[in-house]
Amino acid sequence: MKLKERFNSLEPNRKKIVIWSLVGIVILLITISGYNSRSKKIQNVTENQGSKSIQLEPDLIQKTMLREQRRKLEELSKKIEDIQKKQNHPQSIAEQKNKEKLPEIPTAEDVAKKSAMQPPPLKKEQKVQEWPLPLPVGKSAGSTPPPPGEPQMIGDITVLSNPVATSPENTDKKKGRTVYLPPSFMEAKLLTGFDASTSGKGRSNPEPLLLRIQTPAVLPNDIKAELEGCFVIAEAVGRLDKERADVRLVSLSCLSNEGKAVIDTPIKGFVTDSDSKVGLSGRVVSRMGAAAARAVVAGFFGGMGDMLKATAT
After folding, report:
1. Rounded to the nearest 5 degrees, what angle is found at the Cα of 192, between the Cα atoms of 189 and 196?
2. What is the DSSP letter of 111?
């Protein structure tokens, strides 16, 4: 018998079963074929991609060094031009020196100060003291001579208070060099591990960190600063809600390429993880289990003690 005749000879219930089974087999075959074709495409794509090596520009450090050398050469050329100008115009230099030697005209305030500093003239009031005439020889005085009078001071002396002149502050002192680092970003490597506390004491006593800068800093307008190798000190505080550690920068320490200058300046900044989110992700370590167990044991023994007291009374 043919398949069609067999199918027609079946009962209605069996016909339904056969139809649904055929439909299921067709759907299964379609899904298997689609899955196989998709897996082959994925394998081809992964084989074509290969491994990509991400590297920084090798000439970046050389470019920064060349910029520094050019800047130094420009400064030297400016100094040489200034020296040549001075040699070509010696008369102008002499005139400038003569102008500098001219005395300064005192201001009204200086004249008033000098007049206040000079003491007033002394009053010359001389008084002639009259002494008794000597008695002639051989004659006795009828009475004893009067005692000498009290000595009198000749002239008048006054005390003038002279306030101590305060020396003006030396405003010509050289100002110290200040380091200015505009908003920038750079890649750094964490050299120390840490356990950041999430309690209230952790904020008042953060964990210290040490980072080493791996690449030059990228400043605004595509300007790069040679900060590779510098060290950064930071502080970390744990955040339980984020399961991360917030890191804030404290100071930056660098040494110049020539080894003549040391830079140690406070900075403000933050650290991001590889996912570009603020803070460093970490594993939360909770110690609440031991505390809960101790509380349960203490409650159990407390309840037993209360029960024994109740039975004893």
Report:
1. 110
2. H
Model pTM score:
0.38
Query: Is 282:293 a contact under the CB 8 Å cutoff?
Result: no
Domain boundaries, the chain: 3-42, 188-282
Neighbouring C-beta atoms of residue 279, cutoff 10 Å: 21
Q: What would the pLDDT profile of 244-292 be if each residue is shown by its tens digit?
A: 999 999 999 988 777 667 888 899 999 999 888 899 988 888 766 666 7
DSSP three-state, residue 290: helix
Longest dimension (CA), the chain: 200
Q: Which two tokens stand for residue 185?
A: 């970003």
Contact between 181 and 253 under an 8 Å Cβ cutoff? The reply is no
d(CA 245, CA 198): 9
Nearest C-alpha neighbor of 243 from the set 287, 297, 281 = 281
Q: Judge residue 239's burial from the number of C-beta atoms within 10 Å of its C-beta, 0-12 exposed, 13-18 middle, 19 or more buried.
A: middle
Query: How far is the C-alpha of 239 from the C-alpha of 183, rounded, in Å?
Result: 25
DSSP string, 163-221: PPPPPPP-TTSPPPP-----S-B--EEE-S------SHHHHHSPEEEEEEE-S-EEEGG
Q: Which residues of 76-100 are buried (b: 16+ CB within 10 A; e: fewer)?
A: eeeeeeeeeeeeeeeeeeeeeeeee
pLDDT tens digit string along 73-88?
899 888 898 888 888 7
Question: What are 32's two structure tokens?
Answer: 């298997």
